[in-house]
Specification:
This protein is α/β, with parallel strands linked by helices. The protein has 8 helices and 7 strands. Strands 3-2-1-4-5-7-6 form a 7-stranded mixed beta sheet. The protein is globular. The relative contact order is 0.12.
């Protein structure tokens, strides 16, 4: 009797494992279909030509049901893509600092009123305190093309990175993309060129406890001379994408 019970329990557990594996395999969205959705704006489609979002979404790995924080959301281009990926069972917190650019905030707010923007929750909070205390156990944090700006905005970056680490559940991911500065530049060209040295950013993030687990090369431009501003973009700049994980 005990043996039969044990075998039955093992069979149930094994079936559950196969079911979970199947669910995981089916959980990756059709990112190309999300990008091709007819209700996306003409402005976002124009940005697609520069951003190549299919490769970015595949690298970031947002999936249905995830709880995501998009730091430095701006007008919400990437926030909306994350919202489409997590779907109605997920949530995307889009953070902008208080008194951010009015035009950008209006664009972000407009997104939250569309069907695709239903998973989006706007947050007006500083970078080094980006989440309300009751928001925790995030699956994913994205920080796209804004880390360099924290270097001249009076942000306590060590505190910011510690807060991000604490907000993620064990095994959760932090994906950071930014414009690369010349080796040795550190944070000195954050305001003037809107760039940051990749190795310095990595050291700062790893100091909070994160482990680097992936690098994306889809926005790399090795021909970049690193001596021109990226705001506004006038020609391709070398852009790095780093995926960090909070250890299990």
């Amino acid at each position: 009797m005990t043996s039969r019970t044990t075998i039955a329990a093992f069979a149930v557990a094994l079936a559950a494992c196969f079911n979970l594996a199947g669910a995981a395999a089916q959980g990756t969205p059709d990112y190309a279909a999300l990008i091709a959705a007819p209700d996306r704006s003409a402005a976002d489609r124009a940005t697609d030509a520069r951003r190549d979002p299919l490769k970015a979404l595949a690298f970031i790995g947002a999936r249905p049901g995830m709880k995501v924080l998009d730091l430095g959301a701006g007008g919400g281009y990437s926030t909306e893509l994350m919202a489409r990926a997590v779907g109605p069972t997920g949530v995307v917190y889009g953070q902008n600092i208080p008194n951010f650019i009015e035009r950008e905030m209006a664009a972000f707010e407009a997104r939250t009123k569309t069907p695709a923007g239903k998973p989006i929750v706007g947050l007006s909070r500083p970078f080094d305190d980006p989440l309300p205390p009751d928001v925790r156990d995030l699956d994913l944090i994205t920080f796209l093309f804004f880390y360099r700006d924290t270097t001249y905005m009076g942000v306590d970056r060590a505190k910011m990175n510690a807060r991000l680490f604490a907000a993620l559940k064990p095994g959760g991911y932090l994906v950071i993309a930014d414009h690369s500065a010349a080796p040795g530049a550190g944070v000195t060209v954050g305001r003037s060129l809107h760039r940051i040295e990749e190795s310095l950013l990595r050291r700062e993030v790893e100091a909070a406890g994160f482990k680097l687990v992936g690098e994306g090369d889809f926005w790399r431009h090795p021909e970049d001379t690193h001596d021109f501003t990226t705001q506004p973009p006038t020609k391709p700049a070398n852009e790095f994408v780093l995926k960090f994980q909070k250890p299990q």
